[in-house]
Amino acid sequence: MLILALDTATEKGSLALMAGDRVLMEYSLESPNAYLTCLMPGVAAILKNTGKELADLGAVAVSTGPGNFTGLRIGLATAKTLAWSLKCPLAPVPTLEVLAAQFPFHPHPIGVVMDARRGEVFWGLFRCPEDWPQVLEGPLRLPVRELPARLPRPLLLTGPGLEVYRELLTALLPPEIAWAPPDRRWPRASTLARLARRRLEQGLTANPAQLAPTYLRPAL
Question: Per-residue pLDDT for 43 more than 80?
Answer without folding.
Answer: yes
